[in-house]
Amino acid sequence: MEARELDGLLISSMPNIRYLTGFSGTSALLLVTANQPCLITDFRYKTQAGNEVGGIARVMIESQSLWSGLWRLIPEVFTARTIGFESAHLIHRDFERLQDAGKQWHWKPTVDIAEGLRAQKDADELILIEQAIAVATGALQSVLPLVRAGMTESQIAGMLESALRERGSESLPFPSIVASGTRSALPHARTSSRAVTNGDFLLLDFGSVVGGYCADITRTVVIGRCDTRQREVYEIVREANARSSASVRSGMSGREADAVARDFIAGAGYGEAFGHGLGHGIGLEVHEAPRLAMSAEGLLPPNAVVTIEPGVYIPEWGGVRIEDDVYLGGEGSRILTSFPRELLELS
Amino acid sequence: MEARELDGLLISSMPNIRYLTGFSGTSALLLVTANQPCLITDFRYKTQAGNEVGGIARVMIESQSLWSGLWRLIPEVFTARTIGFESAHLIHRDFERLQDAGKQWHWKPTVDIAEGLRAQKDADELILIEQAIAVATGALQSVLPLVRAGMTESQIAGMLESALRERGSESLPFPSIVASGTRSALPHARTSSRAVTNGDFLLLDFGSVVGGYCADITRTVVIGRCDTRQREVYEIVREANARSSASVRSGMSGREADAVARDFIAGAGYGEAFGHGLGHGIGLEVHEAPRLAMSAEGLLPPNAVVTIEPGVYIPEWGGVRIEDDVYLGGEGSRILTSFPRELLELS
What is the pTM of this model? Predict the structure, then answer.
């Protein structure tokens, strides 16, 4: 804060608040000062905030509005002139509150302060991510043998999500994608009531959460026997995944990491069919810094955990994505997802 | 737009975009003009946007940034001077883009334009909400007989979520809350690995989604036999729920609706223990307009669907919440959740 010439910093992003204080509720403001930080939340979280935040921050329970709590709090805790806020998280309406009810202070936009800290995982965080990955891969392992032609995507997603819960996932970090047949060509398909049939690609993209930390995994399998073109496309994606995981390092730019997969897929003739970025950080959020994409000039920090998820999507035919979670450690990278990447044909 | 002196309106809230165009992806901007609206999204949604939006809006696919697409689009489609934006949804960083790259136009904050339309459900929307409610109540009905002392909250949540999927829920609108024993006293508990035991309250707050529309339901049951105090607290909440559902009407303020439950619970001596609002609208989002709370002065619009969810929470002892979904029709209100509200003792 000193380097940025801030007397204090207002944090309004819930994942950032959780990272800094341990508070896991859905509504709060955190005021960080040189002394003790203060968390403002509402009645629903009275007991929880006390338990979770403990001595890390003072907790204020506000029955009406978090903002009226903030206006009372600031003069109580310091003689602030300049207070930072999170430009990428504060909505315009709340920015107007700063300009209006908070006009006696100077408000300065900041970006990526907490996000930069969060991108570099410590040992405890890595353990939780690895536990979440074990939950996710275990659930997939238990469910794939039960998948049969005739089941709907939604039924398969239900089996998978139940297995995730059974193994201890606290919630689902995003709606699981179970997409079959031509629907697998939609990179962000929603799970539908379509019944899977023999010869379909079945793409499963799902996550799990342990101790607040996320795993994010995708596998694509075939129901019954694959045909030649399915095998060809699958192997291109598998090779792109393998090359990327083997070469990704902290210190590379997100663009360089992305280019490994992109150039390989383009060289195989499918450049147009890989239209999304190679990956993203995972942690308290399932999409967080850093980004691995054509437009990501930033360097990948040490100790980040990122997804490597190349894909090839051919409209009206089908798509393949293979997504692993990779730790960018000091002595090279390590693939955290041990689930097989060979094409599985479900009999 | 004419009444608000706007030449166009930039919609950045995804649920609002879905409401106005049918597009269900996770990343887009919508520019509404007097002529054809235009949806800007990215590669991942190329096929999906074409299918979902059809003739309602022109679709633009942007490979780099939605914003650079917007700057190209505006001069192409109209001679705009003043364009509205959504103050409650646009983050400060994107507001700065409007002031910077978009500075040749005048940007005017708006609130609740699409939200106001969304609060009043039409017949098709009501049907989808009723289907989502049927999925949710059916799932609860199928799972409660399987709950046994010794199961963990997480296992019970897994069974419930699997049943929701099995019955056709497209996703989970929020992480299901399964909270037992003293944890039921946390109004927004997370599901944990705690095993339920005889004599526990078991609170289940969960939702389902059909055609994009949400149901939101809570029931609280007892594992084994309830004791006198559990019965007493439960009956207070049940009566508060019944009185509220019977009296809530469009045209009342959210505060008046809330007061029915609040006054009853306070009269029974538990006023301090009901610290959240009575309810909220449901639709494409599981929390949307209108609000039913002490601070909600706005009138409840006709054809809204709202939750009625009084609760009593006693720290270190336990809590009860009973939540129904109620339609505020022209000829009086109608409770949509048919699941029993009597205290169930699971043997």
Answer: 0.89
